[in-house]
Amino acid sequence: xIHPLWHRxxxxxxxxxxxxxxxxxxxxxxxxxxxALIQQQINAGGKMLR
Length: 50
Prior knowledge:
This is Octaprenyl-diphosphate synthase protein. The protein has helices at about 10-25, 30-45. It is mainly alpha-helical.
């Protein structure tokens, strides 16, 4: 999830959405438990504020 703060900056928000989608697309693993953990980390908030 992308923090609502970025709605104030439409160009940045759009780029962050694209990055989020790309991460979800490439982080596909055969092991369901590991895949679930990776997806959880991708969707966790906070990492894009830096």
